Amino acid sequence: MKHTLDCTGLECPMPVVKAKNMLEENESITLDVIVDNETAKENVSKLANSMNLSYTVKDDAGKFIITIVKNSSTKVEEHKKGMVLLVKTQYLGSGDDELGAILMKSFVFSLTQSKPYPSKVIFVNSGVKLTTQNEEVIKNLKVLENEGVEIISCGTCLDFYGLKEELKVGTVGNMYDIVDSINNAESKMSV
Q1: Could you give the CA distance from residue 87 to residue 108 in angstroms, rounded to a whole number?
Q2: What is the per-residue pLDDT for 136?
Q3: Helices and strands of the chain, counted as H and E runs
Q4: Residue 28 burial by CB count (10 A; 0-12/13-18/19+): exposed, middle or buried?
Q5: Distance (Å, rounded) from C-alpha 35 to C-alpha 42?
Q6: Separation of alpha carbons 89 and 173, rounded Å
Q7: Which residues form the UPF0033 domain (predicted)?
Q8: What are the phi and psi torsion angles at 122 (to 5°)?
Q9: pLDDT tens-digit readout, 175-185
């Protein structure tokens, strides 16, 4: 069964939500998802990849068509569980920002020294400044990433601070990814 889902003009995370719903509702489907921006293209492609589905991307005059194929024999992979750490700010704790920056640097270093590692570390709001501007923290996040920890920075947050082009570790995620990761985690922690 072939369907077309026109998601042009929709903001994050709606293209991913609509595509996921359509894929989950159908045992077998070839789904063309039409989006009009790079972020939506990347996010829908990540969805297909995370569900272990084959997909292709075609650039069609400023619009992207992501064709996702799901058939009844496709095994949709389970989400990786584990601990998810949500980093909400570039500072640890509230009070003095200089102290908060020192504490955050120490906290991230301490993560590299303590096992088990979290399965994902997600950065939102000013926390994305840690994946783009703070070289000491970035160095330690790369250690975690090399050990298999998924490092995700909120795309909306990167855009808000004008930092998307400065991302130095991990990948860009969307709010749907973030909520899905938190919902499927065995344990959660936020700082």
Answers
A1: 10
A2: 94
A3: 6, 9
A4: exposed
A5: 10
A6: 16
A7: 3-70
A8: -115, 130
A9: 888 888 898 88
Q: Contact at 8 Å (CB) between 152 and 121?
A: yes
Query: Do you find a cis peptide bond into 15, omega within 30 degrees of 0?
Result: no
Question: Model's pTM, two decimal places?
Answer: 0.70
- Provide the pLDDT for residue 75: 56
The CA distance from 1 to 113, in Å, is 50
Cα–Cα distances (Å) from 65 to 61, 154, 177, in that order, read 10, 23, 21
Domains plus CATH for the chain? 2-70 (3.30.110.40), 83-190 (3.40.1260.10)
User: CB burial class (10 A; 0-12, 13-18, 19+) of residue 60?
Assistant: exposed
> Parallel, antiparallel, or unpaired: how do β-strands 187-190 and 2-6 relate?
unpaired
Spell out the residues 6+ positions from residue 73 whose beta carbon is closer than 8 angstroms to its own: none
Tell me the pLDDT tens digit for each residue of 60-106: 888 999 999 998 766 554 444 689 999 999 999 999 999 999 999 99
CA atoms of 182 and 176, how far apart (whole Å):
10
